[in-house]
Amino acid sequence: MICARTTDHSQRHPAPRTGRACLPATMVARLVTLTAACALLTLTLAPVTPTKAQRSVRLENPIAVFAALDKVTARISKFQIPLNKSINFGALTVTPRVCYSRPPTEPPKTTSFVEVEEQLQDGKYKKIFSGWMFAESPGLNAVQHPVYDIWLTACLDPNRQAGNTAADPNAVDQPQRRLRRRRVRR
Fold this sequence. Notes:
The chain is mainly β. About 10% of the residues lie in helices and about 35% in strands. Strand 4 and strand 5 (about 75-80) form a beta hairpin. The longest helix has 21 residues, at about 25-45.
């Protein structure tokens, strides 16, 4: 209970006997204004969660593209692996499980879950890597072996054209502009 005092000092209300103090009417108005301003500020600064339309679209791809380095011969190889299929590179067996990317209209983010096993000299296989690889950060989760390095470079879908994506099915390919070569006189 807020007890408001009048501006006429001759008519004062005694404080209620409940132990609560009386506040002047101007102070009550200021408190109400301050409370409303705090509520408005809280709503303004609250984080906005993106809607489903604003979230980025994750494209599933059937082929993962890797690059591998043989440190002994200094040979770099590139290979494409279909999901859940294995390819041998030296003593390593690489098996991608999933490969995700984004449409070309969004910032790139290519990820793949990969399992890598090493064939030991006794013929047994030892799992040396099982985790996510990121094409934009190859050093983050690349396979680092004493003889071989393997990293993700891209995800491909041969059925999807560059202009047609799941995010924008009505996209139209822009005509490619031909650049003129200038002749330089010496």
